[in-house]
Amino acid sequence: MANINSVVRKKHRRREKRREKEKKERININIDAKYFLYLLIFLCAISAYFSYVYQDKFAPAKTFVGSILTPMQNGINTAGKYILSKKELLKSKEELILENAKLKEQVASLEALNIEYITDTAELSELRELYSVGQKYSDYPMVAATVISRDSTGLYDVFTVNKGSKDGIKKDMNVIAGNGLVGIVTEVGSHYCKIRSIIDDTSYVSVMSVQTSDTFDLHGNLEMMADGVVKAENISIDAKLKDGDEVVTSYISDKYLQGILVGYVSDIKMASDNMTKIGIIKPASDFMHINNVLIITELKQGIAEE
To answer: Is the pTM of this model over 0.85?
Structure first.
């Protein structure tokens, strides 16, 4: 019985020792957070004090720490500058895009103004020429008219203007523009009339050289129409015409008033029959650009009497 009690006591003591050991292992030192903060502040203060008092002794440590922190700071600064530069570049790019859009709008506006200016200038120049030719033939009564359509050839061989019988326009009235003769009225409506120009291949005009008084005929030619010139034919073999001579409507013309400038002589040569000469007349008017004309409202005397 005693042996049993002795064994029990031994086991109990061993259990107690094991419990005490486990309790020691589980001991946890719990420190309040505010005390931990106080401890850190205290340690920082002590470090600052000793760093100030013993500067020379702490110099190697400072150097060591600086050698580590300085490259890190440089790297951070470089990265920051790179990011900032990219941000500024992006901002500059956006500003340039906006500025470019504004400049494009300004350029478009200036181009429109330039086109308007060129158009106005061309129209003004044409009106000045029209006024000048009107002054040149001021002895004749005239009506100004504006071209409203033309044939599909691209040239003003046959075209329509906005004046008609209500404005006193009659068939066979002469039409001038630019520096001289354009053509003749062939059809008249109440508020329009059609004009056949001297370059049309059905047109015949009797003309005369101002310099030599030689008379001959102008005949519109379909092949020459694109070049804006007129064929001169039935020129006397004895005619002394030369390049640059002025040509005007002659007194023997049956429909055209006398003395209206037609154009200038060029390329006089012998005809194929060797009995007459032929040549080219460069019209005084520009048949590629006719917008306004003057219609002489006086018919040639023979036509008027009819």
So the answer is: no
